[in-house]
Amino acid sequence: MDAQTQHDVLIERSLDEQARQLFVKDFRSHLASQVVGGVPVAYYQVELPKFVAANGRPPKSKDEIRQFMLTNPYYQFWSGLQRTSQEMMWDSVIDSVERQAPALNARAKTLAAKAKKSTNLGSLRLNPDLEIPRYHTGVDIHIQPGGYHTEFGADDISAGAIYDRGVHIYLMGGMGSENDSLGRISSNWFRLEHPNLKPARILDMGCTTGNSTLPWGRMFPKAELHAIDVAAPVLRYAHARAVSLGIPVHFSQQNAEHTDFEDECFDVIVSHIMLHETSNKALPKVLAESRRLLKPGGIMIHLEIPRPDDVFEKFMFDWEAYNNNEPFSMGCRESDLIGLAREAGFDPEKVTFAQADAGLSSGQRNYSATGFLFPMLKAEKSAPVSQQRLRKAA
C-alpha cells in the first residue's frame, strides 16, 4: 500500500508505474531488513578475526575496516544491490515525471498565480543570477540525475517532483506520509524545550521541496515562515506544494552562506540534513550567517545525519559518501560542529547537541542495525546584557 499524501503537484502514477515504484520500495526494505544484517556478520565473524590475527589488534579506524571489507564477497553483494536499488528508485520516478512534466509545470504556475492574488498563501522569489555552489554542481547528489538545480525547460519543477516521490521510496515511507518527519522532530523538540517561546519569524535553510518546512508552519501558524534553497526547480515545486497543502511559506532562492535578509531578523533558524551537503569551506559560513540573522535570544537548530560512535557503524554510514554522491557527509560527520558554532560567535555556554530518534523500523534503516539518531546542533544567540539582567530579575 502507498501511504504518501496526495497534493496538486505530486506525480500521478499509472498502475504499472505504481507497481514498479512499490517494488523498488519493497526491494529496499528487504535489503535493509534481511540482507544488510549479513554485513556485520561477515565483519565480526570472518574479517575481524583475520585482521586481529594478522595485526595483533582490532582496526583503529573505519578506513582500516574499509580496506579489507571492500574485498569481502558478502559486502560486495549487499553494496552492489544497494547501489542498484538507488538507481532503480530514480529510474522508476523519472519515467512518471517525464510523462507528466508539462502538466506538472502548468499546475505549479497556476498555484503560484493563486498565491500572488492572496495575502496568506506565501510567496516565491527566484534569483536567476545566483551562482549555484560547486558542491551542488560537482556531483548529482544522491545520484539523482541532474541533482536539485538542473532545469529541463522554462518554469520547470521536475527536480522537485522527482525528489518528493524519490525520498518517500528512499526511506521506505520512514519520512512519513508527507516526507516531513524531520521537520516534525525539530519543531516538536523546540516546542518541548522552549514551551514559552512563540517565534514570530522562522527561517528554514536548504529547504528543497519544503517537506521539513511545513511542520514549523503547522506548529506556529502565526509565525512568518521563510525557506531558502539554491535550486530554482525545487523551490517552484515547494511553493506549489505548500499552496496546495495550505501552509503559507515565503520561499526565496538564496545561498545559506550569505543571504539578503537584514541583520537580527529571525527568532528561529533551522535546517534539516543540509550541512552535510555543503563543504568544509561553506559550513563555517552557514553558521556565521545563522548568527547574523538571529535576533538576540534567538535559537539556531541544525538537524544532521547520524554520528555513530562505533567504528564499524561509522564505516557503514560512509557508504553514502562513496556510493551515493554524498562527498561531504564524512567531513560533516567528523567535524566539530560545536566548536565551529563557537568560532562563528555563539556563546560557548549556549551551544549544545541533542539527539532525536527517527523511529525507523528495521526495514527503513538502510545501513544501521541500531537505528537512526539524528543529532541537532543547537545554539542560542546571547541577548544583550540589559535583556539578560531583565531575565534574571524576572
Would you kindly provide a written description of the structure presented here, covering whatever features stand out?
The protein is α/β, with parallel strands linked by helices. The protein has a single domain (1-394), classed as Vaccinia Virus protein VP39 (Rossmann fold), CATH 3.40.50. Helices cover 47% and strands 13% of the residues. It is built from 15 helices and 8 strands. It has helices at 15-35, 38-55, 62-69, 73-116, 134-137, 158-170, 181-193, 214-219, 232-245, 282-293, 311-317, 319-323, 329-334, 337-343, 385-393, and strands spanning 123-125, 201-205, 224-229, 250-253, 266-272, 294-303, 351-357, 373-380. Strands 1-4-3-2-5-6-8-7 form an 8-stranded mixed beta sheet, with helices on both faces. Helix 10 (282-293) links the parallel strand 5 and strand 6. The radius of gyration is 22 Å and the shape is globular. It starts with 14 loop residues before the first helix and ends with a helix.
What would a concise description of this structure say?
The chain has 394 residues and is of the alpha/beta class.
Features:
394 residues; alpha/beta; Rossmann fold; 15 helices; 8 strands; disordered C terminus
The fourth-level CATH homologous superfamily is: Vaccinia Virus protein VP39
Task: Determine the strand fraction and express it as a percent band.
Answer: 5-15%
Give the overall shape, derived from the CA principal axes. globular
| CATH class wording | Alpha Beta
Summarize model confidence as the mean pLDDT.
94
Report strand order across the widest sheet. Answer: 1-4-3-2-5-6-8-7
Question: What number of domains?
Answer: 1
Q: How many β strands by DSSP?
A: 8
Helix content: 40-55%
> Structural class, please?
alpha/beta
Number of helices: 15
Give a short account of the largest sheet.
Answer: 8 strands, mixed
C-alpha Rg, in Å? 22 Å
The unreliable regions are: 386-394
How far the N terminus sits from the C terminus, by CA atoms, comes to 54 Å
**CATH architecture level-2 label:** 3-Layer(aba) Sandwich
CATH T-level fold name:
Rossmann fold
Order of helices and strands: HHHHEHHHEHEHEEHEHHHHEEH
